[in-house]
Every structure is written in structure tokens, then in C-alpha cells.
Write a structure and sequence with these properties.
The chain is an alpha/beta fold. The protein is built from 13 helices and 13 strands. A seven-stranded mixed sheet has the order 2-8-7-6-5-3-4, sandwiched between helices. Strands 9-10-13-12 form a four-stranded antiparallel sheet. Helix 6 links the parallel strand 3 and strand 4. It is globular and about 60 Å long.
Length: 397
């Protein structure tokens, strides 16, 4: 019996690939510092759970395929605070930002199409694009330039007759790069001039550390037919398990076609949508303390990494990840060794191996993405353990 060739082209998530080996290490009594996955330990706001407690319906019915009115209006109000006027028809509720991503690729791409994405990029982009029958045309960046990619000549060199869209993540995962307003406008201009969609993953919008105001591609007038935004409550409100995201666009043709996916999967979970709507009632000042905590965690991680000889990384300007090149031969082999053969006083480290974050073959083999989503003292200790591990690994490999 045959398995889909499209699925066979996809890889396992580098964030979760080693979970089985990690579970075995824990059974042996090893403590693992999890830098591999963007699961914040910030407390989920009470508003979510209070809404769950007070939810009551005689029958738990299907929600409307496009989303419950409470959530759609909450999202409209949130965007209204940054000057973006949306109607309910401009928003589709999804099962996390991941479904919004899948829905977008399925709606836009045909077999043989291409989408331009700066690399390194979130690996699940590859899965969603591949399952749509298309391929990523990588736009290469480097840490020495702060992962800058908003350069007209570089972007346009990636566009050809098969290109259907450009995709950006702002702030960036895994790089933490943040576009300046003029850089974002340039990307929008290029998309419009070449009659392309521009897909903007903005799930980390609140987490910028240079005092920049909240920015969305939706704030720029004149690009309504080009812009598609992917958003989510997962990172914004530390509510990853709620699995509530949204797909946003003013392009009526795109949204009408995307609704077919929504109706095929019937609806997103009714109760979680209602509870997620309550999160948007929080005062914007909620993010001030959260943003400051992530900034301190970032600084703690960078301070530790700078003490390790041979590590190359750029300072993230947003999100909560560091992409770093380690002085090892292969990050995948190193991670396997960390979980199966190494410990430092009964402790070890997990990260996400870098190669799946690239579309260019053989890039990222010695790179890793580390998430600064655990307590500062744990980040500090994790980097100390990593330093010991690198030295010992290179002595034996």
C-alpha cells in the first residue's frame, strides 16, 4: 500500500523529534532543560479560565465555521487599538496559528508553485507548503547582518514565473529579527508590484524589545488584496493549549475560498473560542511585564552564550528565540549524545536542531534554535551545562 509522496517529503518537527529519547533520559533520573520548544511558562491569564467556568449552553453545538461572534469581535477590537479596522468577514477562527498556515497554503498553492520565505524559517512552513504540492524558494540571511532580508535585489532575485507568494515572520521565528516600518513597506511594495500575496505571520507581535510600537502589515493602506495575516492567542497570552488562532485578510476572493476549508473541518472548538475572546479583554499593560521578563531572559541567555568559545549568534530583537551556530560537527548528533550519553551532575539540555529551519540543502547542520521561555536561573544553568557538554563532546568526537 502506498503512502503519500508529499508526506514522505516532510520531516519530523525538530522541536519534538527527540521527545522519545528525552522521556527515556527522564526515566534514568536526568533533569532536562527544555530550550527546544516555544512553550512559555508565563501564567495564562485568569480571564481564560473564568470564561471556561461560566460557559453554559444546554447543548454544546457546532460553532459557526468562520468563528464565534464573541471571538471575532474581540479580535476586531484588538486590531482597532492599533488603527486597523476589520469586519467579521475579514477574520476566520482557526485551530491555532498552525491551521491558519495550512489553510493559507492549501488555498493559494498548486503543484509546482513556489513561495519565497527568508531562511532560517519556522520548519512547519515547509510541511504546510509541501503538502500543498509546492516548494519553498529560500531567501538566505545570515547572523552577521542580523538576518536582514528586506533588500529589493535579494527578494526579487527569488521571484520567478512559479512564485505565488512571499511569506515573512515578524518578529521572526527562529531569528528574532524585527522589520522596521520602512522594511515592511518595502516587502509589501515588492509583493504588490509582482502581483503576489504576502503572508505575514505576526503571532509574536507583542514581543519586541527596542521600544517599537505594535506593528502589523494590516496597518499599511493600499495592500488589502495582497496581505494575509496569521495570528494566534498561543504566544500572546501564553495559551498554547487553547489552540485558537485566526486567519485575517481583506481579500474577499481569498477569504471565500479559505471558508471551504473551514466548512470542511466544520468549526474550531466552541468553548476555547469563547474563552479566548475573554483574553482580549485584558488591558494592554498586561504585556509590559511579560515583555520585560522575556527581555531579561534574552539577556541572560546571550550573556551565557557569549562566554562559550566558538558560538556565533545575533541578538534577537523580538520573539523569544536565539538561533546560534555551535562549535560542533552536527547538531543532530550532538543532541542525541546529550540525551543518551551525557549529563552534568544529572542534568542536560534540549534544543531544536537547525537544519530543518533551512530550505537550502546542508545549511544549518551545526545550528540550533533555543527558546528563552523558562526561568532566568534555569536559562543560566542550561547554558552552563551546554558549555560543559560542548567541551566534552569535542574531546571525544
Amino acid at each position: 500500500m502506498k503512502i503519500s509522496s508529499k508526506m514522505e517529503k516532510c520531516g519530523l518537527s525538530p522541536m519534538r523529534k527527540f521527545n522519545g529519547e528525552a522521556a527515556e533520559a527522564v526515566k534514568r533520573g536526568i533533569k532536562i532543560y527544555h530550550l527546544n520548544i516555544g512553550q512559555p511558562d508565563i501564567i495564562t491569564p485568569d480571564a481564560y479560565f473564568e470564561a471556561l467556568k461560566t460557559f453554559s449552553q444546554p447543548v454544546l453545538e457546532y460553532a459557526p465555521s468562520g468563528g464565534v461572534p464573541e471571538l471575532l469581535d474581540a479580535v476586531r477590537h484588538y486590531y482597532g487599538r492599533i488603527g486597523v479596522e476589520l469586519s467579521r468577514a475579514d477574520i476566520l477562527a482557526t485551530s491555532g496559528g498552525s491551521e491558519a498556515l495550512q489553510m493559507t497554503m492549501a488555498t493559494l498553492l498548486d503543484d509546482g508553485d513556489e513561495i519565497v520565505i527568508p531562511e532560517p524559517f519556522y520548519p512547519n512552513y515547509h510541511t504546510s507548503v509541501t503538502l500543498a504540492g509546492a516548494k519553498i524558494h529560500p531567501l538566505t540571511t545570515c547572523p552577521e547582518e542580523g538576518y536582514k532580508y528586506a533588500v529589493r535585489e535579494r527578494v526579487e532575485a527569488c521571484i520567478n514565473e512559479r512564485t505565488r507568494a512571499i511569506m515573512i515572520t515578524n518578529p521572526g521565528n527562529p531569528t528574532g529579527a524585527v522589520l522596521r516600518p520602512e522594511d515592511l513597506k518595502l516587502m509589501l511594495d515588492i509583493a504588490k508590484e509582482h502581483e503576489l500575496f504576502i503572508i505575514c505571520d505576526e503571532v509574536y507581535r507583542e514581543f519586541v524589545y527596542g521600544g517599537e510600537p505594535l506593528m502589523s502589515a494590516l496597518q499599511f493602506p493600499g495592500y488589502e488584496d495582497n496581505v494575509i495575516v496569521i495570528d494566534s492567542v498561543s504566544k500572546r497570552f501564553s495559551a498554547c493549549g487553547a489552540r485558537v488562532g485566526m486567519l485575517i485578510s481583506k481579500n474577499k476572493t481569498f477569504m471565500a475560498q479559505a471558508m471551504k476549508w473551514c466548512q470542511c473541518r466544520l468549526c474550531s472548538a466552541t468553548v476555547d473560542q469563547v474563552a479566548a475572546a475573554a483574553l482580549y479583554s485584558l488591558d494592554p499593560s498586561y504585556f509590559d511585564a511579560v515583555r520585560e521578563e522575556y527581555k531579561l531572559r534574552r539577556d541572560t541567555m546571550l550573556a551565557g552564550l557569549k562566554k562559550i568559545p566558538g558560538i556565533v549568534c545575533a541578538e534577537p530583537k523580538g520573539a523569544f528565540y536565539v538561533m546560534a551556530a555551535l562549535p560542533v560537527d552536527d547538531a543532530d548528533t550532538f543532541q542525541h549524545w546529550l540525551l543518551n550519553e551525557f549529563d552534568c551532575d544529572g542534568e542536560t539540555v534540549m534544543f531544536a536542531c537547525g537544519e530543518p529551519f533551512y530550505g537550502t540543502p546542508n545549511k544549518g547542520k551545526n545550528e540550533v534554535r533555543m527558546a528563552y521561555v523558562i526561568k532566568r536561573e534555569d536559562i543560566q544553568r542550561a547554558i552552563e551545562v551546554l558549555a560543559v557538554a560542548i567541551e566534552k563532546y569535542n574531546q571525544t568526537h
